């Protein structure tokens, strides 16, 4: 069986470096590119990447995804800062390339995943809920691009009532 050819974008970040280690450790995956700021996206196509794990910044993600979709490279996105306008733009690109898939994972952090779960659990019992997740002080995209999940990722009405805020620790 051939290995899945994976590229990681954002390798200098905490999650990006972990993604590189995870791909290298996986028996059914081959790391074909590890890109950081300033590296050329053409490397993805040149290496035959089938999937890109996109872990960069809100300022870079749309250009990276445009490239991936235009080149038929599937993407798993852990970058934050999603808005309705950005999702609409991505859907437009995908409509032009229906064979390409993009999965947006609102957050790869166990802390963020648990925070969202806590908000879902608390929401039915309170009219208004706020759960605060603090980021490490060196997080590049906090707080301006806090890890807001795409609007469609919270299907339960009770979960929508929960407020999720991610300030930078003092």
TrEMBL record:
<keyword id="KW-0521">NADP</keyword>
<dbReference type="GO" id="GO:0008839">
    <property type="term" value="F:4-hydroxy-tetrahydrodipicolinate reductase"/>
</dbReference>
<feature type="domain" description="Dihydrodipicolinate reductase N-terminal">
    <location>
        <begin position="5"/>
        <end position="108"/>
    </location>
</feature>
<dbReference type="GO" id="GO:0009089">
    <property type="term" value="P:lysine biosynthetic process via diaminopimelate"/>
</dbReference>
<dbReference type="GO" id="GO:0005829">
    <property type="term" value="C:cytosol"/>
</dbReference>
<protein>
    <recommendedName>
        <fullName>Dihydrodipicolinate reductase N-terminal domain-containing protein</fullName>
    </recommendedName>
</protein>
<dbReference type="Pfam" id="PF01113">
    <property type="entry name" value="DapB_N"/>
</dbReference>
<dbReference type="GO" id="GO:0019877">
    <property type="term" value="P:diaminopimelate biosynthetic process"/>
</dbReference>
<dbReference type="InterPro" id="IPR036291">
    <property type="entry name" value="NAD(P)-bd_dom_sf"/>
</dbReference>
<dbReference type="InterPro" id="IPR023940">
    <property type="entry name" value="DHDPR_bac"/>
</dbReference>
<feature type="region of interest" description="Disordered">
    <location>
        <begin position="139"/>
        <end position="170"/>
    </location>
</feature>
<keyword id="KW-0560">Oxidoreductase</keyword>
<dbReference type="InterPro" id="IPR000846">
    <property type="entry name" value="DapB_N"/>
</dbReference>
């Amino acid at each position: 069986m051939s290995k899945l050819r994976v590229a990681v974008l954002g390798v200098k970040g905490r999650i990006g470096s972990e993604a590189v280690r995870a791909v290298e450790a996986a028996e059914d995956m081959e790391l074909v590119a590890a890109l950081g700021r300033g590296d050329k996206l053409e490397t993805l196509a040149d290496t035959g990447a089938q999937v890109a794990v996109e872990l960069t910044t809100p300022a870079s993600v749309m250009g990276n995804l445009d490239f991936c979709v235009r080149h038929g490279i599937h993407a798993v996105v852990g970058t934050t800062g999603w808005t309705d306008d950005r999702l609409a733009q991505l859907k437009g690109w995908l409509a032009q390339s229906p064979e390409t898939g993009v999965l947006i994972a609102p957050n790869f952090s166990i802390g963020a995943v648990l925070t969202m779960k806590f908000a879902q659990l608390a929401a039915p019992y309170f009219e208004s809920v706020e759960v605060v997740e603090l980021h490490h002080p060196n997080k590049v995209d906090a707080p301006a691009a806090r890890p807001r999940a795409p609007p469609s990722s919270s299907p339960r009405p009770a979960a929508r009532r929960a407020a999720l805020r991610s300030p930078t620790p003092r």
